[in-house]
Amino acid sequence: MTSVDKAELLDTCLLAGRIMIEGGSEMYRVDDTMARITDNAGVRGVALFTTPTGIVAGLNNEQYVQVRQIHQREIDLEKVSRVNQLSREFAAGELSLAELHQHLRALALHVPFFPMWLQIIGAGVLSATMMIVFTQQYDWFDIPTAAVAGIVGFLVSTYINRLTNIRFVAELAGALALALVTLAACKVGWGLSPDNILIGAAMPMVPGVAITNSIRDMLAGHLLTGITRGMEAILTACAIGFGIALVLPYF
Fold first, then answer.
1. Predicted confidence (pLDDT) per residue in 218-240, tens digit
2. CB burial string 169-186: b at 16+ within 10 A, e below
3. What's its membrane topology (predicted)?
């Protein structure tokens, strides 16, 4: 292979890995996808070092290494699914390396995402149904209140997240907002059990995927990534709890 081929191959692998990490993928899946791309390109042996904040990749027995920094991370499994699909198409010979690189660049720039109105509906449905699941009570009077509180918390969290890069502030503000909505609803008689409402309304912000991926990474041997993501999930949960706790004395 020429140096241009090697550069394109590593750049393609790192782009795929960066998109997957930004989408919240498990680290073992990122390593596996990047290794499969190099194998399917006809290059055996690639050295990878992946963390939540950066990727280092190099070809074995070659004095050539590339590094990519990860600036943002979120839970967007659509990114992970699209990269996996493109990798399978490349393995099947349906895409060339240049076409794979082009599709990955397009995916990084224009990620398909659900419209905001559908996300709002999803947050409301999740809040209402999770209240039933966790409380084991069909409290039909509190279900609409839990849905509204969950929607408000989701909207505030999303808006704050777009305004600032300071982590955990968005979760704290969203939890505070949903707690205030719950307090107001209970004061005017639109809610019977504030505990049940708060449990359901907080569910759209709970870092369940991050906790699961943290445990999965540690079981796969990625101790650094697993501990890092675990601490990130714990701090997110603490921010949500603190936002709700600020309002609890007024119930």
1. 988 888 889 988 998 999 999 99
2. bbbbbbbbbbbbbbbebb
3. Multi-pass membrane protein
Are the CB atoms for 150 and 120 separated by under 8 Å?
Answer: no
Residue 220: how many other CB atoms lie within 10 Å:
16
1 located within any domain: no
Name the residue type at position 83.
V
For 31-44, the DSSP string reads HHHHHHHHHHTT--
Domain count along the chain = 2
Q: At what angle do helices 143-163 and 116-135 cross, to 10 degrees?
A: 130
Please state, in angstroms and rounded to a whole number, the distance separating the CA atoms of residues 6 and 56.
15
* Residue-wise pLDDT tens digits, 143-163: 999 999 999 999 999 999 888
Task: Please tell me whether residues 165 and 198 are part of one structural domain.
Answer: yes
Residue 191 scores a pLDDT above 50: yes
- Among left, alpha and beta (phi > 0; psi -120 to 50; other), residue 42 is left
Q: Helix, strand or coil for residue 59? A: strand
Query: Considering the entire predicted model, what is its pTM?
Result: 0.83
Same domain, 135 and 150: yes
Q: Is the dihedral of CA 242, 244, 248, 249 positive or negative?
A: positive
The parent domain of residue 217 ranges over 116-250
Contacts for 170 with CB less than 8 Å, ≥ 6 apart: 156, 157, 158, 160, 161, 164
End residue of a domain, out of 109, 128, 150: 109
Whole-number Å distance between alpha carbons of 187 and 165: 35
- By CB neighbour count within 10 A (0-12 exposed, 13-18 middle, 19+ buried), where does 28 fall? middle
Give me 136's structure tokens: 């084991």
